[in-house]
Write a structure and sequence with these properties.
single chain; 76 residues; mainly alpha; two-stranded antiparallel sheet; 3 helices; 2 strands
Length: 76
Amino acid sequence: MGSERTEVPLGWRHWQILELLARRHQGVDADGLAELWPRPVSAVTVRAEVSRLRAKLGGIIAARPYRLTVPVVFSC
């Protein structure tokens, strides 16, 4: 059976979250993501954005700590 591929359009913040999570295999909490963010952002904002992203992507982002549950391939 071939691999399944799903494309979901994402905004800049959601791409940023995926990129940060892809680099943190062990996971990271909202405070940690806020610290890694390239611009100042609050943990409350990070939690809200992760919540929206989780709703878009189904179960690929686990919680406590946030981490990816599937491999991610970034393409342009």
